[in-house]
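Materials and Methods. Structural model of Glucose-1-phosphate adenylyltransferase family protein. The 385-residue sequence of Glucose-1-phosphate adenylyltransferase family protein from Georgenia daeguensis was retrieved and submitted for structure prediction as follows.
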Amino acid sequence: MALTRTLLVVLAGDAGSRLESLTARRAKPALPYGGTHRLIDFTLSHAANSGISDVWVVEQHHPLSVTEHLAGGRPWDLDRTRGGLLVLGPEPGEPLAGTAEALWRRAGAIRAHEPEVVLVAPAGAVYRMDFTDVVARHLAARAALTVVTTRRDGDLPRHGTVQVHEGRVTEYVSRPEHPRGDLAATGVLAFDPAALLAGLEDVRSARGADGLGDLGDHLLPALVGRGEAVEQRHQGYWAEVGTVEEYWRVHMDLLDRPPFDLDDPAWPVTTRVRRHGGARVLGAGQVADALLGPGSVVEGTVRRSVLGAGVRVAAGAEVIDSVLLDDVRVGPGAVVRRTVVDEGVRVRGRAEVGGAAEGDVVALVAAHAVVHPRKRVPAGGRYPE
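The predicted structure was written out as tokens:
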């Protein structure tokens, strides 16, 4: 159970611009994962499993795509008379803003809630974390800020990086051009509420009309610079989903080396359940090393791929090393390799999509597109272009 009165603020407003057409109609947290789940399910499930019952979801980009999936918080037992899930969407006319600006706009609500700890977490990562450990570390250290970190291989210029000495965070740099070391902030942060609100107000006073930006732009470096921040190291799997290639890779990880069991009864990753029948493999259909979403039908060949709900692969078709989202249709004799295919796409018979070589860049087909036989989408291609 949660150790104290903890308010979890889930930052679900990420536009996910590097995900290209995958986020043209949905927020990144609403992206499907594993044929059954959505990215936001991880943070909400960890909250439920950690005994945290006060959860605010802050939306900005395509808020309806997130709100619909949340279903009032019922899947995570957050549909409560007191506390539970609170969805904070953008107000009419409110311009899109960074994460610090979004928190500053809710400062009055946070103050009125009177939490002992404000826990902030992203909604676009695949991970498993017991938030009670983070809260316990934060309280034991009597810190203004606790930064959950993880070691990263590459891509550090896209993250906040930290330097640590004897458990204290001594430096925080947001998206460094030349990062020092390999220790990155995960985006999971624990704040002393008074320090958070005072820090936001200080940044607001200094920045004025320029806005507060993201948490890592000004607030976190300021708190770290005052010697008020400690580290909590995350040792397990952490995958930030920021690009098409990363989105494809977290699915291949799920097939090659599952980082954890989504159905672990001791720590389930819960999602909103939709009505579908079971998956079926018919006739000469062949499936190997794959995940089939509910209601999917395979009459062709599927290898090392993840199929969402309601996908149909016709006889003679091949789907290899690919991720197909809900309601995709692959026609007879079509071939889809090393590709992410968004929902509702129609790959007509004998069309070819993607490349077969190990190093080929992942191709992407936008939602509801129709790929005709005369059109070959090459490795790394984008359809429509």
